[in-house]
Amino acid sequence: MSDSIVKVRWMQDILPETHNYFTFLKKVTRHEFRKNGFRRISTPILEKKELFTRAVWEGTDIVDKEMYNLIDKKGRDLVMKPESTAGIMRAYIENDMQSLAQPVYLYYVEPHFRYDRPQKWRYRQFHQIWAEIIGEIDPILDAELIYIGYTILNKIGLAGDFKVKINSIGTTKDRAKYLEELVSFYTNKSALLTEDGKRKLEVNPLRLLDTKDNDEIILANEAPKITKFLKKESKEHYEKVKKYLDLLGVPYEEDHKLVRWLDYYCHTVWEFVDNSGRSQDAFWGGGRYDWLAKTIGNKDEIPAVGFAMWAERLMRAMIDKWISIKSKDKIDLYFIQLGDEAKEVVFPLSLMAREKWIRALSSLGTPSLKVQLKKANRINARYVVIVGVMEARNGKLQLRDMDAGTQEEIEKDKLIDYIISKIWSDKLDFYDPSKDLIIDTPVIEEEKVEA
């Protein structure tokens, strides 16, 4: 098997067992977002590289080391998106979402790609669940997003296993004086910095506060606090956010080391962290980014705030806590068919069962009854129908309750309703997707498509 093809290193296969957690996480977050007025959006996996060099800036690890770059057949410089905030703002501007009622509430569940240093449950293809509120600067929106995140973590079983950390990084004017103080503080202690720390001091001193080196963490704890440099407007914004969080009953810790070192961020920033003490302890982070729109070429600033959840980290936390998810994939009805005549009965009957939302499978091939019963046990089927030549001819089938270990005879025409009565509490109220369809014939203008 040494010549067999395997997946690209540090990408991931999400197997059915893990998908149970992923599906549950998406359902919980989707429910919270939708009830709070968010609508789903998706952006392309491929974006122009310029979007991220403008938004994330040259000289950062994301741009310099971690992006998956490619040149298409027309020589265009593209990347597989390493994050989505810039793409969402691009989509907001490009699709004239400013003409909608403001603010616009958007959420998305997307794969992202970074050539990052891999770790357990940290892959180069990873999934993030994002929420963005674009078009309004009110600090109540910052608090609302933190509250939504707090609610989600509690609802997926992690209550008591995380902390909410918040800070304000003010505006660029606030940070100008602060950066002078910060550089002065670290310059006097540069001998204690790692080589990477010295590089950060030259390129972007704020990144020293987010260090993972133990000695630099001690220095960061002693560093000047940015909140002491906030001007009146920034102080008021931050105080209102904390007031709203208190009103909502969301516990939080203020952490002066919590920053966003990209210039388009301002005011409130936050993280949800686990209690592990690991260097990679953040479940997700968020913040206000009112200057991103101008960074990517818009004439004016557009106020915006959002967060991104690391889906894989949340699933890891759930699994580590021994949280199990009830599987919705259990087979309700398994058909054992013995002979060609039996197959002619079972095939349409199994399709009819699935139309009634009964999860049904049929045995294939011609193995013995014993072998097929073993398979039914292995896939954990709730009920098993046995159809041989006699049952196919007289229309009376053998139905085995695998949980109770009992078997009875049942007429073919009564099977579906009987199974429904056993597995559904409201057997007649089935969801019919066709009821949600609104058929119309809109006039569609022909769009010019660029190759």
Structure commentary:
- This protein has 451 residues and is an alpha+beta fold.
- It has 2 domains: 16-171 and 231-320, BirA Bifunctional Protein, domain 2 (2-Layer Sandwich); 333-429, Rossmann fold (3-Layer(aba) Sandwich).
- Helices cover 37% and strands 20% of the residues.
- The chain has helices at residues 16-35, 49-55, 61-66, 85-94, 139-155, 172-187, 195-203, 214-222, 232-248, 292-295, 311-320, 340-355, 369-378, 389-394, 415-423, and strands at 39-40, 46-48, 68-71, 77-80, 104-113, 125-134, 162-168, 253-254, 266-274, 282-288, 304-310, 333-337, 360-362, 383-387, 396-401, 406-411.
- The protein has an 8-stranded mixed sheet, with helices on both faces.
- The longest helix is centred in the N-terminal third of the chain and has 20 residues, at 16-35.
- The two termini are 41 Å apart.
Provide keyphrases for this structure:
451 residues, alpha+beta, BirA Bifunctional Protein, domain 2, Rossmann fold, 2 domains, eight-stranded mixed sheet, five-stranded mixed sheet, 15 helices, elongated
Structural class: alpha+beta
User: Which superfamily, in CATH terms, is the homologous superfamily of the largest domain?
Assistant: Bira Bifunctional Protein, Domain 2
How much of the sequence lies in strands comes to: 15-25%
Mean pLDDT: 87
Question: In angstroms, what is the radius of gyration?
Answer: 28 Å
CATH-level-2 architecture of the largest domain: 2-Layer Sandwich
Strand order of the largest sheet: 1-5-6-11-10-9-7-8
Cα-to-Cα separation, first versus last residue: 41 Å
Q: pLDDT under 50 segments (min length 5)? A: 425-429
How many E-type strands? Answer: 16
Total of DSSP H or I helical runs spanning 4+ residues: 15
Question: For this structure, what is the CATH class of the largest domain?
Answer: Alpha Beta
| Shape annotation | elongated
CATH topology of the largest domain: BirA Bifunctional Protein, domain 2
Share of helix among residues? 25-40%
The biggest beta sheet reads:
8 strands, mixed
